Structures are given as C-alpha cells and as structure tokens.
Amino acid sequence: MPSYIVTLKDDASPEEVAAAKKHAQDQGGQISHEYSLIKAFAVTFPDDAIQTLESHEHVKAVELDGVVNTQ
Known about the structure:
Order of helices and strands: EHEEHE
Number of strands: 4
C-alpha cells in the first residue's frame, strides 16, 4: 500500500485530528507517523479508498509520501 501525508486544517482541534486518524484507520489505513510541529500524520492507505480520506471535513490535503531532497 502506498503511504500518504495527511495534513489537517489549521483550526482543527485535537479531537478533530483524532477523528481524522480514526477515520483513516476505519477505512483500512495504518498510521505510520504522527507529526508534532504540524497537524499531520503519515498513513499507508489502499489506493482505491483514498478519496474517502480526502473528503473528510477536517482534512486540508492528502499527498503521496516521497523522498524530499535539498541542494
């Protein structure tokens, strides 16, 4: 399963962040990392179910996780 970075809306409360994580897990996702500086988490998620996560009311963005390089 591919891994995604899920970013929550800036005004999401801790309860709303927890609800988004629970939603991801209920849809078959497995949380692999939780970020502390931003409201976000990494999740492995089936390709065919990612749209349900993107449409969650507290989710700002869902991006495919990948390697980032700087020069």
